[in-house]
């Protein structure tokens, strides 16, 4: 039974570190190995709440599922959630610590490095194997001195490193060689080999390059992972959303396709909420990224406003792009989730996240929002459409619904755009409300509940006038398991797993050559 640790680094963000780490976890778990994932520092707007109420990155949750273990805060002890180009919320062991800019963050590095190492050591004591995932690239030499996620972690814990390169981007040999060459001698000593990801083409044409890379670096290419169509897995950041559109899985021949438009604002978060919609046969999911696509909002059968790390700023973006006006003019279904729900309210008072004070919302739901300093982190369970719904909450904004007949049912002064400000028919919806064809909830993950999702889509189809009948028997949890199995298959079939086992048991090979010039 192998015992040890390995760090999966990448030449760039989105090179495939997360999926390779998940694949290794699934492959080892199949062998009966007690394995856990670990990412010391993660920058992501996709997060999840663990069973004990800690917020961690969704990628580590998926990796824990691949390993067959319950996710914990130790698997992602430091989570950075960007709120702008310069400022991020720092979440430590699942709880928000501070909002800092890039320069202020340096003052926390020594403390956070110790937190990360302690989490790593707890995992090492509890599991046979810990598979670590790096962040960005280890060759970001301007950040090396304070690094705690890549070579800083590897050096502190003597962890062998495998570097993943994305051949679909082009330039993979230069990226792999250059990543190694930019590191100092001590870091290079732990770079044990390479993996090439997303290959499609004739393997025989690639082989000479693999041989030359091995000769130039003294390190093997442990495997070439083929491009896998239809692969998705709890994406870490919106970089991976560029150009992303999920075509419909084949639906009933006599039914309509249901078109879903998801608004991708600049600080979109937890956009994985819509993956369950895209998994439904006959549903097409498209991300709307600019005002030029306002027609998508008009033509869609359902518009989803997902979560946001910067609710007020993203609401302003909706207005500047003209998408807010398109939403106000819609008569078809709209679903707001968390930050999107908050935008649908009449008003937002935010002295916490943006400091903007009182801001007018879209006014499509009879509600008001107040931001609190303390973040709500919870795993609620409820019921809707007669179905059990398990979900999770991550938000600073608290929504208060003005139910019909209550004191807040009417605004003191109607807004200048003439929107209807009285809602005679308002119904509960999960923890939020529904008014006509507009639904709002703070609950993430609700759509992953199969019965609820089908009932909700049936309601949407009826409101949109579509002949769409959700398929029965579609299990989103089973689909996710199949995705994780596919990642395990990739590792088992296309990687030198005997070499990975040697790295786990013996560490980095001794005497690996050092490439010039090396970073100072």
From TrEMBL:
<dbReference type="InterPro" id="IPR029062">
    <property type="entry name" value="Class_I_gatase-like"/>
</dbReference>
<keyword id="KW-0315">Glutamine amidotransferase</keyword>
<comment type="similarity">
    <text>Belongs to the CobB/CobQ family. CobQ subfamily.</text>
</comment>
<feature type="active site" description="Nucleophile">
    <location>
        <position position="338"/>
    </location>
</feature>
<keyword id="KW-0169">Cobalamin biosynthesis</keyword>
<dbReference type="InterPro" id="IPR002586">
    <property type="entry name" value="CobQ/CobB/MinD/ParA_Nub-bd_dom"/>
</dbReference>
<dbReference type="Pfam" id="PF07685">
    <property type="entry name" value="GATase_3"/>
</dbReference>
<dbReference type="InterPro" id="IPR027417">
    <property type="entry name" value="P-loop_NTPase"/>
</dbReference>
<feature type="domain" description="CobB/CobQ-like glutamine amidotransferase">
    <location>
        <begin position="259"/>
        <end position="451"/>
    </location>
</feature>
<dbReference type="InterPro" id="IPR004459">
    <property type="entry name" value="CobQ_synth"/>
</dbReference>
<dbReference type="InterPro" id="IPR033949">
    <property type="entry name" value="CobQ_GATase1"/>
</dbReference>
<dbReference type="Pfam" id="PF01656">
    <property type="entry name" value="CbiA"/>
</dbReference>
<dbReference type="InterPro" id="IPR011698">
    <property type="entry name" value="GATase_3"/>
</dbReference>
<protein>
    <recommendedName>
        <fullName>Cobyric acid synthase</fullName>
    </recommendedName>
</protein>
<comment type="function">
    <text>Catalyzes amidations at positions B, D, E, and G on adenosylcobyrinic A,C-diamide. NH(2) groups are provided by glutamine, and one molecule of ATP is hydrogenolyzed for each amidation.</text>
</comment>
<dbReference type="InterPro" id="IPR047045">
    <property type="entry name" value="CobQ_N"/>
</dbReference>
<feature type="active site">
    <location>
        <position position="444"/>
    </location>
</feature>
<comment type="pathway">
    <text>Cofactor biosynthesis; adenosylcobalamin biosynthesis.</text>
</comment>
<feature type="domain" description="CobQ/CobB/MinD/ParA nucleotide binding">
    <location>
        <begin position="7"/>
        <end position="231"/>
    </location>
</feature>
């Amino acid at each position: 039974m192998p015992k040890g640790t390995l760090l999966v680094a990448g030449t760039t963000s989105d090179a495939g570190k997360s999926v390779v780490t998940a694949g290794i976890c699934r492959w080892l778990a199949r062998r009966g190995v007690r394995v856990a994932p670990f990412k010391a520092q993660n920058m992501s707007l996709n997060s999840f709440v663990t069973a004990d109420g800690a917020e961690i990155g969704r990628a580590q949750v998926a990796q824990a599922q691949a390993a067959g273990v319950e996710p914990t805060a130790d698997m992602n002890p430091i989570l950075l959630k960007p709120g702008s180009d310069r400022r991020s919320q720092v979440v430590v062991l699942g709880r928000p610590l501070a909002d800092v800019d890039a320069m202020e963050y340096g003052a926390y590095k020594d403390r956070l490095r110790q937190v990360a190492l302690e989490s790593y050591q707890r995992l090492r004591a509890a599991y046979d194997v810990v598979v670590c995932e790096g962040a960005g690239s280890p060759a970001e030499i301007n950040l090396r001195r304070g690094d705690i996620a890549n070579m800083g972690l590897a050096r502190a814990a003597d962890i062998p490193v495998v570097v993943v390169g994305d051949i679909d981007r082009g330039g993979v040999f230069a990226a792999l060689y250059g990543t190694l060459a930019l590191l100092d001698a001590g870091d290079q000593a732990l770079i044990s080999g390479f993996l090439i990801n997303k290959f499609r083409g004739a393997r025989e044409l690639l082989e000479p390059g693999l041989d030359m890379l091995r000769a130039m670096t003294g390190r093997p290419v442990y495997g070439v992972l083929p491009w896998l169509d239809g692969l998705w897995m709890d994406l870490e950041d919106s970089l991976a959303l560029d150009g992303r559109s999920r075509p419909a899985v084949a639906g009933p021949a006599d039914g309509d396709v249901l078109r879903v438009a998801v608004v991708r604002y600049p600080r979109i978060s937890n956009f994985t909420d819509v993956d369950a919609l895209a998994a439904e046969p006959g549903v097409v999911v498209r991300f709307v990224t600019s005002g030029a696509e306002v027609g998508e909002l008009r033509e869609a059968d359902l518009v989803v406003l997902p979560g946001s790390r910067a609710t007020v700023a993203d609401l302003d973006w909706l207005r500047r792009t003209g998408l807010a006006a398109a939403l106000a003019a819609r008569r078809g279904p709209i679903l707001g989730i968390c930050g999107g729900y908050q935008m649908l309210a009449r008003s937002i008072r935010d002295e916490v996240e943006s400091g903007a004070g009182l801001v007018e919302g879209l006014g499509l739901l009879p509600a008001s929002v107040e931001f609190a300093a303390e973040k709500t982190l919870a795993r609620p369970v409820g019921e809707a459409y007669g179905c059990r719904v398990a979900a999770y909450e991550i938000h600073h904004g608290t929504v208060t619904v003005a139910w019909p007949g209550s004191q807040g049912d009417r605004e003191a002064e109607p807004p200048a755009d003439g929107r209807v400000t009285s809602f005679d028919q308002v119904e509960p919806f999960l923890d939020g409300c529904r008014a006509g064809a507009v639904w709002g909830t703070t609950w993430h993950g609700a759509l992953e509940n199969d019965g609820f999702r089908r009932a909700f889509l049936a309601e949407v189809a009826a409101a949109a006038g579509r002949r769409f009948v959700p398929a029965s028997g579609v299990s989103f949890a089973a689909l996710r398991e199949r995705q994780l199995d596919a990642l395990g298959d990739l590792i088992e079939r296309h990687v030198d797993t005997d070499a990975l086992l040697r790295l786990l048991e013996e560490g980095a090979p001794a005497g690996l050559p050092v490439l010039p010039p090396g970073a100072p």
